């Protein structure tokens, strides 16, 4: 297959090039994202390989179809950025990498919790400046706390098991409860009960029309005072204006996010010499109890190897007319 890769960084090229020695596809890497303005680059290719912030709306897909693109290969799990109906109408198949080291994202969620709680990021800077004061570094024990997991799919399950290991009581909300987790000691409850009872809430459900702004002003009202909210799912699961208000009123005690509603255009880029004009983002960064990472939950060696392997296998399956195990349908 002749594949145009979009939104690529050097690490994407390195992992895909080395894995491709077993597949022999023709890979062309573009740094730019894919959207209706860049879709013209796909002439002469059979497939595109895209990532989380590429914008495959109906207009982009129309242009891809005109250029003869037959397959959209997502090198990620989420597919909220693809208009699946438009792709089906143009007879373009969509495949993804449903599970790549789910531990990578689950462990990153735990890293956000531990950092926010024990303030290791602040301690690191203090000690380097010969400041050994412990003032304002007080944390709390995770042992015995109640953790609410929203979405117990592949990543949420891993996360729930890690938190059980800390000695936490784990509550979960999912439209399809997982029996194995129940027998491990996780209690499934309604969303409202989870919001009311949890000291820490972690989001692991997909972004879709039912989960958009799942955490809004109403949800914050129901939460315990001083609760911690962690989001490694997708930015728009949280209403950004509502979270800013919840932090200002001190209803929310801690916020740890790896994804942000308006992350497209910000994340994955070095913007250190540019003026950040996103006022919501700057407001979030002004709070001492907010920790933001730039969508790096997936970013481990193991996950990158699996992403390359599964993506190239998806492309080979399509080329050979084999069943598409990882197809996403409207
Ligand atoms: P998954 O499909 O295995 O699990 C999602 C779970 O959410 C399922 O159990 C599903 O039943 C549940 N769910 C669906 N709708 C729901 C709703 N309305 N309310 C409650 N639960 C609902 O997905 P996964 O692999 O565990 O990934 C979860 C999400 O994590 C992805 O959709 C993606 O957005 C995000 N993700 C982020 C990163 C990162 O680097 N930060 C990396 C990979 C995935």
From TrEMBL:
Keyword Calcium: no
InterPro entries: D-isomer_2_OHA_DH_cat_dom, D-isomer_DH_CS, D-isomer_DH_NAD-bd, D-LDH-like, NAD(P)-bd_dom_sf
Family under the similarity heading: Belongs to the D-isomer specific 2-hydroxyacid dehydrogenase family.
Ranges where the D-isomer specific 2-hydroxyacid dehydrogenase NAD-binding domain occurs: 110-297
Top-level EC class as recorded in UniProt: oxidoreductase
SUPFAM superfamilies, A to Z: Formate/glycerate dehydrogenase catalytic domain-like, NAD(P)-binding Rossmann-fold domains
Molecular-function annotations in GO: (2R)-2-hydroxyacid dehydrogenase (NADP+) activity; NAD binding
Stated name of the protein: D-lactate dehydrogenase
EC number: 1.1.1.272
Keyword NAD appears in the UniProt entry: yes
Keywords: NAD, Oxidoreductase
Domain named D-isomer specific 2-hydroxyacid dehydrogenase catalytic: residues: 4-329
Organism: Leeuwenhoekiella blandensis (strain CECT 7118 / CCUG 51940 / KCTC 22103 / MED217)
